[in-house]
Amino acid sequence: MASLQEIRARLQAAETRGPQGAGGDNQIYPHWNLDEGQSCVLRFLPDGNNRNTFFWVERAMIKLPFAGIRGESESKQTQVQVPCVEMWGDSCPILAEVRTWFKDKNLEDMGRKYWKKRSYIMQGFVRENPLADDKSPENPIRRFIISPQIFQIIKSSLMDPELEELPTDYVHGLDFRVSKTAKGGYADYSTSKWSRKESALSQEEQEAIQRHGLFDLAGFLPKRPTDVELKVMKEMFEASVDGQPFDAERWGQYFRPAGMSAPASAAPTADDDSVPAPVATAAKPAVSQFDEDDAPPFEASAPAAKPATTTQKAEDILAMIRARQNRQ
Hints:
Elements: H1 4-17, E1 39-44, E2 57-66, E3 78-83, H2 93-101, H3 108-114, E4 117-128, E5 142-146, H4 148-158, E6 176-179, E7 181-183, E8 186-188, E9 193-194, H5 203-212, H6 227-241, H7 248-251, H8 310-327
Antiparallel strand pairs: 1-4, 1-6, 2-3, 2-4, 4-5, 6-9, 7-8
């Protein structure tokens, strides 16, 4: 288990470096289903992988919207999630294009639409659970998918010099209260906070850790895409921008919308449903925490101009992409 000093050092190093360029199961606790005004209490545990300094792993996904599914006359707009390879320190072919859009004021909205969405996977116990319909699994160690807003609260507290022990310590750890309110029609978790009092794990909780063990959190990240899958991702991205439908025959063996079966002859897919898209499970997507975007990579410097239509934006963007490809 990493010490508090090691975690602080790694967080400080990350701040110094800046941004790096180059089907569900009920083991996941759905805290986003809290009603407005409700809160739950979580107790985070260390990663089962001792090589991980942190008690979380970062997950970055890109959502590609499509105008239905090819061959289905009544299909509605669908969405496919693909992993952003910046999770592994690689250059993402999609973000390489999207970053340039933020230099043009007219393309900022499109840029946000295709920008990576971060979440953080953690594990622990649910100590207070107001969700009446949540069924606790046999293994009480749950997984949590934490949004950037909540993560910033967790991270800031870890850097507080008055914090003397790791919040995940079995004896001197702290509970974390997730509180859900609303702001501007969206879910807001800014009042979430750590408990001020330390508390030891109960005998029952310690026995659960001994009996079930801790999860290796990296095992719940998507599979790292191959070179072929990276090319498929780029092709899907361009088709999405162009307003085309999802072509299951062409791409389904690599990536596909949630709930769609793999083609009969398909090899194992590149997407990983072990951590389902929470936006699909939320009863009210308009107030889902998972709609939060990361901040755009650049401050737009272009002067304000009359917004272009969505169709014109797509045409302009595709022209930019193809022009680059022709120069290579």
